[in-house]
Protein 1
Amino acid sequence: MKKIAIIGAGIVGSTVAYYLSKSDMTVTIFDEGHGQATKAAAGIICPWFSRRRHKAWYRLARSGADFYQELLSDLKNDGIATDFYDQSGALLLKSRPEYLEELRELAESRLVESPLIGSLSVQTLAEAQKSFPDLAGFDKGILASGAARVEGSQLTETLIEASGFSLLKEKAELKRLSDGTYDVNGQVFDSVLLACGAWLPDILEPLGYQVDVSPQKGQLRDYYFDDLETGHNPVIIPEGEIDVIPFAGGKVSVGASHEKNMGFDLTVNERILADFEVRAQDFFPKITEAIKTRDRVGIRAYTEDFCPFIGEVPGLKGVYAVSGLGSSGLTTGPLLGKMLSQLVMGQQTALSASDYLISRYIKK
Ligand SMILES: Cc1cc2nc3c(=O)[nH]c(=O)nc-3n(C[C@H](O)[C@H](O)[C@H](O)COP(=O)(O)OP(=O)(O)OC[C@H]3O[C@@H](n4cnc5c(N)ncnc54)[C@H](O)[C@@H]3O)c2cc1C
């Protein structure tokens, strides 16, 4: 029986653990956890309005959004609740009507390959208020009914628990042994899966690798309303950096920042979060009545061309890595986790891994 170590239990590591639990492999998961991007994420799954021209990236993003349906069905078949995911829709706001029309045309051209988008409709403020009464400050928006929001930490906890594998909350170090196996914190493994997010360079650089992965800080704030049912309100995506993300039970998140050159700094920047709140008031004035419950800070992983990668680490047989998921990793992460499980089990991957070649980003 093959012994596998998974290092990192964010969205990638927890998904690969869940799918490997359906094999006969023995798996141990290591997760240090501080600054994990998945726990801090806003959780918006809505890739179809992206104007990025990187075709392989877009294929991954739209297929990643679709893949949630397979993951949900697999979990439901195992008798596991999936209320971490809800297709409550997304309302995109633009300052000019022609920008809205361009967006609608773009998403409509993608409907055939991505029916998950659902219905697309341009809504007036009065129409939008029927599903989200407290909205204000815009004339029209475009609603995509199939967009979803995900509770990242609830999803990873669900997957790890469903896997039944043990999770060691410790920082892992990787060493290659002379017989071709690997030592991780004193235990020996046949294969090691690096799902370390922005921390991938830390684990590979001591082994002589250069890794094109850089950290980017992101923070957002969670609010709570005791008099508002927010469960099925759409996510609001205005122009600029902030989004307003309603979750079930009166919880609303506002964020998130994209802060470069901050390294792995996890301190909350009150000025940035207060500024987000002021900007959110334009569209959702009631935010001033909410109780601030929690600030979340996480570190995203970026590659130079903003595309994730997946594959066997060149020169380290049996060691596989996924990283570089950037700001859309809750969208692409589950599919990449599934693909990682397929690579380790010697199966064909859902998308061609050669479109996300690891050797472009990791060099000896
Ligand atoms: C504020 C914010 C908002 C976001 N919003 C969205 C969104 O709306 N939609 C979307 O699609 N994406 C969003 N993202 C992006 C998404 O969250 C990430 O791309 C994704 O979660 C990355 O997942 P991951 O598994 O690769 O890494 P992570 O979730 O960062 O997990 C990596 C884990 O590995 C652990 N680790 C690393 N090295 C070691 C080691 N040596 N030993 C032990 N453990 C180790 C870390 O501690 C961490 O727990 C957002 C991100 C942030 C920060």
Note: Residues 184 and 325 are 24 Å apart (CA to CA).
Protein 2
Amino acid sequence: QRRRGDLSGFVRLHPGGEQLLRRRAGTDVSAALDGPPHRHSANARRWLEQYYVGEIEPGDEQGFAAPNPATVAQLCAWYQDDLWVPQHYNHCLLPQDLVDWQKPLLWQVGYLGEKYDEWVHQPVDRPIRLFHSDFLESLSKTAWYVVFMVWTPVVLYLSWVSYTSLAQGNTRLFSSFTTEYSIPVHKYYFPFIFLLGMILWSLLEYLIHRFVFHMKPPASNYYLITLHFLLHGQHHKSPFDSSRLVFPPVPASLVIGFFYGVLRLLLPEVLGLSVFVGGLCGYVIYDMMHYYLHYGSPKKGTYLYGLKAYHVKHHFEHQKSGFGISTRFWDYPFRTLIPEESFKKED
Ligand SMILES: [Zn+2]
Ligand SMILES: [Zn+2]
Ligand SMILES: [Zn+2]
């Protein structure tokens, strides 16, 4: 017995490229799922189940048979059969779903306890409702361009402030220890200091994603599980919920303000500001790229195509590695690189 799936809503998001999927439309993909080029993970196969619309009768490849009630019951264990809406979002629950999707999720996930970690790493294609209150719910959502519109003017303005202050020519390194040997910082150094800030951001991006977002909450701690879900867990549960892919500017400004303060304390005068503005620019690029890696359809062979495949592997298969999002760079020294797939003959 073979199953038929409607992938029209997913085809653009497919990490292996849209073309590859379109070429296989209407064919049996069970062998292709094993690759090459890519051996699909258990999560990817479960993902495919979400688009199930019916059966294929043996001998009638093009015919359309109704969904097998047993399969539907299996997929929709928690719901009545009449909630089944083929061709649209899968409004049913997978059997392993432990929460009630009709209710806001945020206050439920803490009860999952030791089942939380496995549950949160089984992605589904459906939007998440976090809060009961419409107001809080709308605050928790951010369109990608809001991040761009809020922070780009800040980057431009602070760059101008940094550059013009450096141009006055009285910024010196080490001037608090020595007056004779302090080093003047010329205004033409600004692009390099800015770049340093961007590189520091990429390290910060790695560290935050690995050690804050992927900190495993203790199974017995309801509140830490809830916090984990709010910060990053919900993105792993529903990786294609477009309204929650970027960081909302209000909480972001608290974190950004903290790092601004640290840099101003550590570095003299306008240097701290120059590094900061580079870092902020790095953050904006990162958030835009993360959105694109989920929603964009980069051409095969490009840098972004490779990054997209890499990031989707972090979501579906290798949640304990591949923490770099805008660059794979820091995964090398920290030894968390997702290995390339090899298709040598095994016996
Ligand atoms: Zn695929
Ligand atoms: Zn992650
Ligand atoms: Zn992601």
Note: The pocket of zinc ion (ligand 2) is lined by residues 209, 213-214, 232, 236, 314 (CB under 6 Å).
Protein 3
Amino acid sequence: MIKSELPPSATVVVAHPTLQFEPTKEVDTFRNYEDSHLQDSVSRAYRNSHTKQTYEYAKSKLDQYGSLSTGINMSVWEAAELLNTIVDESDPDSDIPQINHLLQTAEAIRKVYPGEEYDWFHLTGFIHDLGKILLNPRFNEPQWAVVGDTFPVGCRFDESNIFYEYFKDNPDYNNSLYNTECGVYEKHCGLENVVMSWGHDEYFYQITNEQDQEMLEWVKKFNMFDLYSKDAEPVNVEKLKPYYQSLIKKYFPDTLRW
Ligand SMILES: [Fe+2]
Ligand SMILES: [Fe+2]
């Protein structure tokens, strides 16, 4: 659905984000999963997600939402506004309205990658968390089925996951179908054939259905802006709206099926 191709990395000279993107707080004060003021709700969200996200559950949610047949149609901006009704309990860095996080991420990207050539990257920043609308009462999904981290299911849980210990209470942890290195998959089967834990990222991927060419490099760049732009200073939503509306118009149809 996104019309423009990602620029081939070999031909694009990119600014180096680590040199130019300066978070307003020390990087190691972000992503505190040990003793932040939001620690209780964050660890509860991760415990629920890691114990309840099984291979069968993720597949059932893919069936439910993958066909985009909820009957809900709305524009990208409407979805962004709907996001302001929800709170992401898994996030230790942000308790500001979600639309501010979208715009902070997008604006942090735009600072380091200015210009029309990268407008698709600005828009990526703006839309990246729209899948969290699943927390709105119109969808009414629980926190553990929407936010927190994304990880492959159907194979062994990787120890690098935050709160890895919670996986020990997931039924798949002791299921020999799923707890080997490759589990239900063949080696090199391709990421698009791997079932990921169900959540806002997987849901929005289903809606936009972008193939992941050249993707890893850009995902890594993107992560930095997503994770470290959550300073407390609010962005001016009304001032930024025209620019992002113009990008939405360029890359998306007027309404999407959700
Ligand atoms: Fe996210
Ligand atoms: Fe985000």
Note: The chain has one domain: 38-257.
Protein 4
Amino acid sequence: TVNLPSIRGAVRAVGSYLQDQGLNLLINNAGISSHATLHSLDSQEMLSVFATNVVGPLQVVKEFLPLLEKAVKGTGKKGLSCSRAAIINVSTKLGSIGLCLGVSEAPTYPYRASKAAQNMVTRCMAAELQDKGILCMAIHPGWVKTDMGTEKAPLSVEQSVRGILTVLASLSQDNSGAFLDWE
Ligand SMILES: NC(=O)c1ccc[n+]([C@@H]2O[C@H](COP(=O)([O-])OP(=O)(O)OC[C@H]3O[C@@H](n4cnc5c(N)ncnc54)[C@H](OP(=O)(O)O)[C@@H]3O)[C@@H](O)[C@H]2O)c1
């Protein structure tokens, strides 16, 4: 399940830090992995990965929306950009139905299915929020040396984050609903 009081606590903390200003940029980064195969998976694992990777970020957006809307009005900017108001969902190419990278070697049902669902959530939000001045897109961070990515990953956190920040700074109207990578 999703911990709504915890999300609302975060909104209050951010709101009091910002005082009268809005929030320009919301990055949904938290996520969990699961290596379950068709043979090993059970419904509880499937549902708990969906709760964290899909429902959680959606509730976070819902609760932070008033602060993002405040930023749209406050910046005096037009169009869509991360310096006006944006929601960035950290996704993965493993959740792309179009690419289906290595799906036969690593089916990992809960992780890949939840990220595919998160990608659709990004598309739906982009369509709904673009007229309100809020940019929504998904980004693949690369394969990164974190607890999830492990030491075998080729990219350091610094390289991935530097790439992501460069991409975010370049985003415009044209990228509403897009799925880009760290490069
Ligand atoms: N690493 C990669 O190669 C790679 C590749 C593609 C995409 N991604 C995506 O990048 C994002 C970050 O992954 P990572 O590699 O940094 O993974 P990680 O090393 O496992 O870290 C995950 C982070 O998410 C937080 N988190 C997990 N469940 C949460 C929950 N229910 N509520 C709040 N926070 C929660 C964790 O907090 P705690 O430490 O407090 O548990 C931790 O800080 C994920 O969305 C992942 O799918 C990573």
Note: The chain has one domain: 4-181.
